[in-house]
């Protein structure tokens, strides 16, 4: 479980304060997606923003993923996971599989690997693809560029499922970042018009322009056969690639300042930044992104792949692996995340499934050696609303009033707030206090009676510690309250602005565990 940390503001001319970083006002709501009435007894609702299908390197079709994720109860004995909102997050680039079909490896009856070249001209799920668009490479290779599958395949399926389940379903992207690894993004502009037919063209345009795996030199054309999206750069590696990545954030900030996000994911997996390649991130890169797009580049995502032995992190990952499911940037007290918060930046923590497949098992099996479905193991909670809409998902994430769980350690009814002199503030808000004031921090959670695990035997990891806790019965051992000073934004001219991230590096030495609580304290 993770929630946003609590920080003390300090400085020569500034009174001490509790700061649970604020955010800009929300944009106007868009209302095309049918509103889902939600029980007001739960202050938060669960979702996922990072997942894959056969449009890229996943194992199941878009429809199958959405049915398992959004549906409730069971279907022919197969469990669904009933989350409240969903952002689709396939990779960029191109692919040769028709994602209206699952891969044979998913072991779904009647569903086998199907290539785009086998279905051109056929109407399937109400969608007809007559040709593979873009430059000549697409037609000759049999691959569909991702901008086309985002716009013409995924989006229509997502909207149909959104209307069928009356839940928010957003077209997004796990962009393959120039100079780095991956980042979760979305641009909801045009996806949810008040009236008429929507489009994911702006999301598709972002993928075409800025995903380093998209090698298309043409993109869509107009009636005169002229390129619509011009000016694409192919500087995709190292330092030059990073500058293109910064330009992508600037594009989001200019075109979708309140309707998009840019959240780097599994950021330690490829090691440190490589000035001549495309690997990890240094601290200056996160600062560059946040400087270029303060209302879109507002966080970092923990690795998914929760059924994998180390969440897909090998020994070459920065930090050498994961720590309770998180990389060292967010797990370490005083580490990179604490450094970003200590500058007063709105920079929050998220977690999603990164669903691809169940490893050696089929998609209907309960066992997995790789991934869990969205909502099965990890959940990203955002504030509940009377009628949840796509804009509310992004506003909720940007607000900082979010938390993520693994294994359903806690439910959707968390309370976390701080008060002084009768003034109460929650996560994502700022509480001002004077030196000597007593600040009260309240934290309340409910531990669910069970989770989605099919196993009742004791957790093997906990047995080594002398604890005999069934895998399907969550156990919240303790909660740490972590504090740190906010000392101001470090400018690019400061010698401490950059430098290679290392496992030993401390970014905010004031950060410490203020108190530890359990069910009896």
Structural key phrases:
19% helix, alpha+beta, globular, TIM Barrel, 521 residues, 19% strand
- What would the CATH topology be? TIM Barrel
The biggest beta sheet reads: 8 strands, mixed
Name the beta content range.
Answer: 15-25%
CATH architecture: Alpha-Beta Barrel
Mind telling me the CATH class?
Answer: Alpha Beta
List the uncertain runs: 7-40
Q: Roughly what percent helix? A: 10-25%
Give a short summary of the structure:
By secondary structure, the chain is an alpha+beta fold. The protein is built from 10 helices and 25 strands.
What do you see in this structure?
- This protein has 521 residues and is of the alpha+beta class.
- It has a single domain, classed as TIM Barrel (Alpha-Beta Barrel), CATH 3.20.20.140.
- The chain is 19% helix and 19% strand.
- The chain has helices at 62-70, 136-141, 146-165, 201-210, 238-255, 283-292, 328-331, 336-342, 390-399, 460-463; strands at residues 2-3, 7-9, 17-19, 44-48, 74-75, 78-79, 85-88, 94-95, 123-124, 127-128, 144-145, 168-176, 182-187, 260-265, 299-302, 348-351, 378-383, 403-406, 415-420, 423-426, 430-432, 440-444, 479-483, 485-486, 512-517.
- The protein has an eight-stranded mixed beta sheet, sandwiched between helices. The chain has a four-stranded mixed beta sheet with strand order 21-3-2-24, with no helix packed on it.
- A hairpin with a 2-residue loop joins strand 5 and strand 6.
